[in-house]
């Protein structure tokens, strides 16, 4: 499971200092982008060299506890299923407490599809990319 740290900034919160619900989607997007980068792929390079982009097809989040201003969060991303044109992710948002201890705040299920960069039509995940993504877990 890939994990990416995110600090909660004032701009991420509502007037009560609680992370605004839509920002969890942004945090999860960052973690998926950083996961892809860690596997060795930049999204802009994929678009230009292989003609593919990834887009969210569906997203659902269960909010368990609130994240607050200035907390350090860890956002995880794990592929749960890889299809011919899609990737399903389970993502979690956890608050770091002390040392390696954490508290689960939200769980998301995100479906991402592979699209042809120019037409936005569904496209098979290129075999070299699929192989590398499967190796990354």
Provide structural commentary:
With 137 residues, the chain is an alpha+beta fold. It has a single domain (2-120), classed as Thiol Ester Dehydrase, Chain A (Roll), CATH 3.10.129. Helices cover 26% and strands 40% of the residues.
What's the topology here?
Layout: E1 2-7, H1 22-39, H2 43-50, E2 52-63, E3 72-82, E4 86-96, E5 102-116, H3 127-136
Antiparallel strand pairs: 1-3, 2-5, 3-4, 4-5
What is the beta-strand fraction? Answer: 35-45%
Oligomeric state of this protein: single chain
pLDDT < 50 stretches: none
Return the CATH topology: Thiol Ester Dehydrase, Chain A
Name the features.
single chain, about 140 residues, alpha+beta, five-stranded antiparallel sheet, 3 helices, 5 strands, about 40% strand
Summary, kept brief:
The protein is α+β, with helices and mostly antiparallel strands. The chain contains three helices and five strands.
